[in-house]
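Its record is retained below.
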Amino acid sequence: GFHDIAISRPNVKWGIPLPWDKEQTIYVWVEALMNYITGAKSGTADFWPADIHIVGKDIIKFHCIIWPAILQAAGLELPKSVVVHGYLTVGGEKMSKSVGNVIDPNDWVAKYGADAVRYLLLREVAFGEDGDVSEEKLKARYEGELANGLGNLVSRVTNLIEKNLDGKLAGGQPKAFAGDEGIGQLVEQFKFHEALAKIWGWVAWGNKAVDENKLWELVKTDKTKFTEIIGQLASAIVSIANQLSPFMPETSKKILEIISADKIVKSEPLFPKVQ
């Protein structure tokens, strides 16, 4: 159902002149696409072809038809894959300056931190689909899953280690559990929301282990069992931090620094209360 595409437009002042017709300039979706090739060259390094070419769903035609045709005509390699993302919507509507429903992510970052905003966008919306976002949803996930979930787990475990083990684990610095429960595969499949759900399964397991074993009491009656469980929890936290690194890099780094210190002390709140 496609037809020939004109590669030029009547003279546009910012356009690149067509060499054989000065009255015409090259259509931007023809000349601008070549920036991917030149931009992928850095000194002696050449990062083309891209492993993953990420585009919005409104420009599929240009990146999946015009761009491959240009590359083939020039004898250049095509990107190894093209991945298409959807729209972030507000109240079910696409963001639009004319409607006045545009959200400036910098406002959210200033208030909640970059990692929290990244978490909302990657957890709330299935990659590739449209998804509705709001500050109410961000606040709910911030207070629930981040502060009361992950932040609470790190705070409780580090506090128990500092108070009852003088800040030192019996086996030295904790090591991550073997395997990643398929999280790496989910990331490769762009199922970021599912990967984060799996990671938060470990967060829930950790908080449940603290509560069910009543570690604050267990340390008085069975120090050996307490030490064993707290070691498992510390390893779980290292695993969680490692798995979170592509999603929440700053938080991941903070957690690893806290739990791998020579002397572990109760952590400051990872996600402070937002006024």
